[in-house]
Design a protein that fits this description.
- This protein has 283 residues and is α/β, with parallel strands linked by helices.
- The protein is built from twelve helices and eleven strands.
- The strands form three sheets. The chain has a six-stranded parallel sheet. A three-stranded antiparallel sheet has the order 4-1-11, with helices on one face. It has a two-stranded antiparallel sheet with strand order 2-3.
- It starts with a helix and ends with a strand.
Length: 283
């Protein structure tokens, strides 16, 4: 078992519980154990990712598939419609694990495929493509893994990974200055603070407060260029809000360090994968 498989074991337990693995002991006992050929069929162009989860689902049921020895060559590569990946499993495990394994693989592949398109379109710049916390409940680890495989970068995994001062904080505390003071007093020596900024005036205040990490939210391209002119050494600019594949190019402004895009995870288009099973020796 790989370290990743061990890390996701609790998730797999939850996924199979949802699929009622414990529901019919007689059925599980009677399913044939003979080896079968499994065919993972790529039915739409895709950038494949999530094979550790795919393999982990079958191994959770008792298979002994080796991700490192066999599936490594397939992960993080482009596939075209019609390609097939074959492997062998006991029939009982193949049949029982198929849906959970495919669901995880399809979701991961959808996210990595969508991410890769953003990364490729911005590759001529030095701007990083980031994900957000707008992930599917219960699948954050999978989806953020998929973003990385697709060439993107992870933002924070939780609310407390990095302090981010947003609108609700500023509204509650009475503005940027008191919100900044609150988070500075949290006394976490190595934890960065990122501040969501909505205007050039607020950017000026952030500079006065010596805030280094800014997220420029829903800035127009014209205001982004003004913001870059105000950027000091040591400051980082992340932009967010309304960036799509269609308008990405206009936001690739020199001086911007990263673009965070919730759509990488919440709006990744579906990819079509299926798994077919046939007895060995059948042509």
């Amino acid at each position: 078992m790989t370290l990743l498989e061990k890390a996701i074991e609790a998730d797999l337990e939850r996924f199979f519980e949802e699929d009622d693995l414990k529901g019919n002991a007689f059925y599980w006992r009677e399913l044939p154990q003979s080896l079968v050929e499994c065919q993972l069929k790529i039915k739409s162009d895709a950038f494949l990712s999530g094979l550790p989860y795919f393999v982990g689902a079958f191994n959770y049921l008792g298979a002994k598939l080796s991700y490192d020895d066999y599936f490594f060559k397939y992960e993080g590569k482009n596939y075209t419609k019609g390609e097939v990946i074959t492997f062998q499993l006991p029939f009982s495990i193949a049949l029982t694990g198929e849906r959970v394994a495919l669901n995880l693989l399809q979701r991961s592949t959808a996210v990595s495929t969508h991410t890769q398109r953003f990364v490729e379109k911005s590759s001529h710049s030095n701007i990083r493509i980031l994900d957000t916390r707008k992930t599917t409940p219960g699948l954050r680890s999978l989806e953020k893994y998929a973003v990385r495989v697709g060439g993107g970068h992870n933002h924070r995994f939780s609310q407390a990974d990095v302090w981010m001062i947003k609108d609700n904080h500023k509204t509650y505390f009475g503005g940027l200055r008191p919100a900044w003071d609150f988070f500075k007093n949290m006394q976490t020596h190595y934890q960065n603070i990122v501040v969501e900024i909505h205007s050039i005036d607020e950017l000026q205040l952030a500079k006065e407060l010596k805030i280094n990490h800014l997220m420029l939210d829903n800035f127009s391209v014209a205001d982004l260029k003004k913001a870059v002119e105000l950027k000091s050494a040591g400051m980082t600019y992340e932009i967010s809000g309304g960036v799509t594949l269609l308008n990405l190019e206009q936001y690739l402004v020199e001086g911007i360090d990263a673009i965070s895009i919730g759509a990488l995870t919440h709006s990744a288009p579906h990819v079509d994968l299926s798994m077919k099973i046939k007895a060995l020796g059948i042509i």
